[in-house]
Design goal:
525 residues; three-stranded mixed β-sheet
């Protein structure tokens, strides 16, 4: 083992002495770099891994957490602050979970705003006005924390104005609120998210309506303009955009359906169809009540009979007998009988009620125009009209219109464009073909050159003794006979002939080597 080490040392010294300055510099530099890498790896392996404890936007909160970490004797360091002014506090990974729980138990961090934790301690001598102001501040802080919990929001600020209570309801003013948002880079809020923020603030503040909420971003853009007035039936800009998109998509589908059907008859590109729709986006509620025939349900009859007696005095002659009171005269007496019949009939009437809610999106009116790239007669035009009416759901009762015309299309622009494209493709094919041919020539040249170089290197590497090896012994006459055509020789004879020529060339070019080789053979014998 000792001899091996000495030998290795000797070989290393000899190798070092044979190197030039550049080789020595490369070896020294590589060794130094390797040592530095090993030192860094060892240091990183022995140092604890640090992780982010909190990323805060308020320096005051960061200072409070640093103070707590110093009290707990936990090592920390700061990461590079972001462009938005945030501070990241790093501590060893093994202490992150426990430290977060302990700080959370102490109410830290609070996010830079004051919430309902301000009511944990009662202030002596506080008036109702002070308590009301502290409540509004705490409510603003809680709403700020909730809104900042959204993934798109970087910072938020909430302002609430709640007027003093009034003795008269007509003099009571409504509460108002304003929300300012700073969104994260490349982030936007959907209209539904803005409406959600407005609904959150509305349900958190007493006496506040969505009409009295203003939501803006840090650039001053009003985000709540499309959400206000939604309860009163006003149409927001987003709803208008959705309706327009729906109408365009509906028209496009009808156009594609008609064109694809007619192109099967007249050929691709020979038909143009345009559809214009008037869509009803109103939501309708219908209630209908119908009455059928009367059906007897019950009948009630009653009969009443009454008898009446009438007395009539006789008419006397003028004079004493008829005018003296108490003087009786002869008269007439009569009896009458009356019968009354009452009938009450109760009828049941069939009633049919229907309540329907018509969804928006129905077609109020349709206009279709079809142009065919050829002259068509009246019969063909009638057939096309019937086909289009059936395919598009044509309804004459609602005033739909259809126009079919046949005339040759002007294709000069398309023909010129097609010609230019064909010429460009042809030129491109020529370029690609020339490049491919050039690449093929270069590749062939590289292959041929590589083969030649490899053969030369192979010949240079063949030992001198091997150059005299032949497959079989040949006579001198055979070697010197050049009258035999090479095409009549066998592959073995051709190889022997090439070896002979090579030996002659070596003997002429390297006579000293040949002499040394012959001496070696004679000594061995």
């Amino acid at each position: 083992m000792k001899e091996y080490l000495l030998q290795l040392k000797t070989q290393s010294i000899e190798l070092w002495q044979k190197m030039n300055k550049i080789q020595k510099s490369v070896i020294v530099g590589s060794a130094a770099l390797l040592i530095v890498v090993l030192i860094l790896l060892t240091r990183s392996a022995t140092m604890p891994d640090y992780g982010a404890l909190f990323t805060l936007k308020d320096e005051q909160q960061a200072g409070q957490i640093v103070e707590k970490l110093n009290e707990k004797k936990i090592p920390f360091r700061f990461a590079d602050n972001g462009a938005d002014g945030t501070v990241t506090i790093m501590i060893p990974n093994k202490d992150i979970t426990q430290t977060r729980l302990e700080l959370a138990g102490e109410g830290m961090p609070t996010g830079g705003v004051v919430g309902f934790e301000s009511f944990d301690n009662t202030k002596f001598g506080e008036t109702d006005t002070d308590r009301r102001a502290r409540y509004l501040r705490a409510l603003q802080g809680e709403l700020t924390r909730t809104i900042e919990g959204m993934s798109e929001v970087d910072r938020a600020r909430v302002h609430i104005v709640q007027p003093e209570p009034s003795l008269f309801s007509e003099d009571q003013k409504s509460a108002t609120a304003a929300v300012m948002l700073k969104l994260k880079p490349n982030k936007t809020l959907e209209e539904s998210q803005v409406a959600g923020i407005a609904k959150l603030v509305t349900n958190s503040v007493e006496g506040l309506t969505e009409d009295n909420i203003t939501i803006v971003d840090i650039n001053g853009n009003v985000l709540s303009e499309n959400t206000s007035g939604s309860e009163s039936g006003a149409i927001s800009g987003k709803q208008v955009e959705v309706r327009q998109q729906y109408q365009k998509q509906y028209q496009s589908e009808l156009q594609d359906s008609v064109e694809s059907m007619l192109e099967k008859i007249w050929g691709p590109g020979k038909v143009v169809c345009r559809v214009s729709l008037d869509i009803d986006f109103d939501k309708i509620e219908q209630k209908r009540q119908e009455y059928g025939d009367a059906v007897p349900r019950s009948t009630e009859e009653s009969e009443k009979t009454s008898t009446t007696t009438n007395s009539t005095a006789a008419l006397g002659a003028p004079g004493t007998d008829s005018n003296i009171p108490g003087y009786e005269t002869a008269g007439e007496t009569g009896t009458s009988e009356t019968t009354e019949i009452h009938e009450i009939r109760n009828n049941e009437i069939n009633t049919y009620e229907e309540f329907r809610e018509v969804a928006p999106g129905g077609v109020k009116r349709m206009s279709v125009a079809v142009v065919i790239d050829r002259e068509i007669d009246a019969n063909q035009q009638k057939v096309v009209e019937d086909i289009v009416k059936s395919a598009a759901g044509f309804d004459t009762n609602r005033g739909d219109q259809l126009s079919v015309a046949g005339m040759p299309f002007n294709t000069e622009y398309q023909d010129e464009l097609s010609k230019q494209i064909a010429d460009a493709e042809q030129r491109q094919m020529y370029i690609y073909g020339g490049a491919a041919a050039l690449a093929a020539v270069v590749l062939i040249g590289v292959i041929v050159g590589s083969v030649v170089v490899m053969r030369r290197r192979k010949q240079d590497k063949v030992p001198l003794e091997d150059q005299f090896v032949i497959s079989r012994p040949l006579s001198i006459d055979e070697l010197e006979d050049n009258s035999i055509p090479e095409k009549d020789l066998t592959p073995e004879e051709k190889e022997q002939k090439r070896i002979k020529e090579r030996v002659e060339n070596v003997a002429k070019e390297q006579p000293d080597d040949i002499a040394q080789l012959l001496r070696t053979w004679l000594i061995e014998e």
